[in-house]
User: Which sequence fits this backbone?
């Protein structure tokens, strides 16, 4: 095993670790989105990753990702908001103005 083999092995290991971290974060985002929609009495439609970057929150390094959250307030109209996570923790949810049923 030479130095090139070690470097290739470490790069592959890093790729697997990044993939695993992103999968965990996507699962957390969906759980947060479902809980948030249930709290706000909204219909959860879907969620997808919009952008991800490496950042620091305080002294904690990690992946900061923004997800696009699809939801409906009346079952007919689709809205899309932003859900932001730092690693597995919810940082914030921003929703556009939406119509409330019966108004």
Assistant:
């Amino acid at each position: 095993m030479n130095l090139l083999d070690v470097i290739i092995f470490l790069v592959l290991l890093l790729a697997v670790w990044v993939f695993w971290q992103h999968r965990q974060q996507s699962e957390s985002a969906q759980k947060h989105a479902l809980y948030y929609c249930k709290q706000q009495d909204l219909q959860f439609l879907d969620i997808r990753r919009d952008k991800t970057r490496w950042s620091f929150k305080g002294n904690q390094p990690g992946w900061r990702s923004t997800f696009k959250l699809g939801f409906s307030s009346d079952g007919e109209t689709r809205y899309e908001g932003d859900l932001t996570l730092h690693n597995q923790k919810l940082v914030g949810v921003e929703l556009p103005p939406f119509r409330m049923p019966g108004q």
In short: Residues 12 and 35 are 35 Å apart (CA to CA). The two ends are 70 Å apart (CA to CA). The helical segments are 3-39.
